[in-house]
Amino acid sequence: MRPLLVYDAGPGEAEAAARRVGRELPAWPEGAWVYLSGFLIEALDEPAAEAIAERAAGGRLELLGGGLYSPYLPLLPERDAAWQLSDMADLLEERFGVEVQGAFLPDGAFDLTLVPTLAEEGYTYALLPQAALAEPAYAGLEDRGVWLLPYRPEGDGYRVIEGPRRPRAPFPAAYVRGAAHPRLLPRQNPAAADLFAKMRWVSDKLEEAHRPPEAAYQRLYRGQWGPAYRGRDPAAWAYAWRQLLAAENLCDPRKYAWLEIELYDMDADGFAEVVVESHTLNLYLRPAEGGRLFALDVREGERPLLGGRSLGARWQREGGGAFDFGALPFEASKYRDRVHLYAEADGYALKTTLRLRPKAPGLDLEWRLGLGRSRPEAGTFWVEFALAAEAPDAEGEDATLALPELGLTLAAPRPFRYRRRGRALAIGFPAQLAPGAGRRFRLRLSVEDRAPAG
Questions:
Q1: In terms of CB atoms within 10 Å, which end of the chain has fewer, N or C?
Q2: Is the peptide bond before 358 cis (omega within 30 degrees of 0)?
Q3: How far is the C-alpha of 388 from the C-alpha of 407, rounded, in Å?
């Protein structure tokens, strides 16, 4: 069994990990397999890179490739998986003068569709955790295949199990740490689902763009960093989202004012999202999931204004009881420069209209809440926002609410209630509802031209 050294550093850890490599390199065991993430390789200083190259040339270690920026390859469009594998091999050859043979798959992210892609990019084997693979096995699909080799923890590192090898040794159809299948990760929480949708959308844009710059692909690949797609680390999620937004800007450099609205299944889950894009702002909605707004991006400065799903609506009756519209599927339609969402249930009907104002820039929101019940009701119509930045807790009543940490201002024709708890903001409109009638509530979100300081 040969030793395996893994330095799978992410974007915020690369420089510290590169210094660690420089310190530990003299003690690396002879014949070890070594994996360095693309983030780390780019941060590595020349003396360390030359020392690694010298050892690799002398056969004293074997460098592993894989995805360039530690992606979960089965999550990616096939073309992106192939490009990441190829670009990582090119980077290893350029920096260390070696031709890569094996792939390290972060968190063991694997499925059988990856086999021909690995083989086509010149990889002859891939390493998987022993939890996924008990013994070495050959995985073949059609006329292409790779060897899968298991590794297990040992001391401060790992050991790779190379043999013996059997013709009928079993291998997994799919594996990733913490889920039944890598492609199920976007279904584990909304944050992962939304980032996955954004990634696929931006990848398709680059594929369809006319000669996008190389920098756009680099940003896309960084935005495909695997740990961000678990949706559990807000910092990782925000990093990946900003990288994808930067890639989008680079491949869509139109010089004139424009606005486009499209209903499109961004994440291939069988339900269409609403995509509203302009030269200044992007907006994405999930009609089938409560009409939630899951992105409001400022293109200048690559600024996401939201850090989760927003526009969950709730009618809170006086005296107790509430009706939650966020649990309903909405019907979506578009007309010129606006989007309409509609749902009704339990004697209530809600029509939401969103109009992007690209030149201002900003977003106009209007809700029309209708009551089909036989008795009038009094209460408060609440709308929730999940913001991309925290601020001190606050509550009160006003017709204008400034959010300087986001460069955002909320304004309405009449005073509204607000409650701020960290990143969560709730806006409430007191109202009286008459049977067979409705009430309109309006809110304007205005975005500063420049990013706020800090």
A1: C
A2: no
A3: 11
> Is cis: bond before 77, omega within 30 of 0?
no
The encoded tokens of residue 17 equal 């990990």
**Residue pair 238/308 in contact by the 8 Å Cβ criterion:** no
In this structure, which amino acid lies at residue 400? T
Strand 408-421 relative to strand 438-447, pairing: antiparallel
Q: Is 105 helix (H, G, I), strand (E, B) or coil?
A: coil
User: Strand 125-129 vs strand 102-104: parallel, antiparallel, or unpaired?
Assistant: parallel
Tens place of pLDDT per residue across the chain (454 aa): 899 999 999 999 999 999 999 999 999 999 999 999 999 999 999 999 999 999 999 999 999 999 999 999 999 999 999 999 999 999 999 999 999 999 999 999 999 999 999 999 999 999 999 999 999 999 998 888 999 999 999 888 899 998 889 999 999 999 999 999 999 999 999 999 999 999 999 999 999 988 899 999 999 999 999 999 999 999 999 999 999 999 999 988 777 899 999 999 999 999 999 999 999 999 999 999 999 999 999 999 999 999 999 999 999 999 889 999 999 999 999 998 999 999 999 999 999 999 999 999 999 999 999 999 889 999 999 999 999 999 999 999 999 999 999 999 999 999 999 999 999 999 999 999 999 999 999 999 999 866 665 5
Q: Give CA–CA dist 183/175, Å, rounded.
A: 10
Running DSSP on this structure, what letter comes out for residue 176?
B
Q: Give the span between the Cα atoms of 137 and 133, in whole angstroms.
A: 8
- Pull the structure tokens for residue 384: 């929730």
What is the rounded (10 degree) CA torsion for 382, 278, 281, 76?
A: 100
**To which residue do tokens 């030793």 refer?**
3
User: Which pair of structure tokens corresponds to residue 155?
Assistant: 């001391």
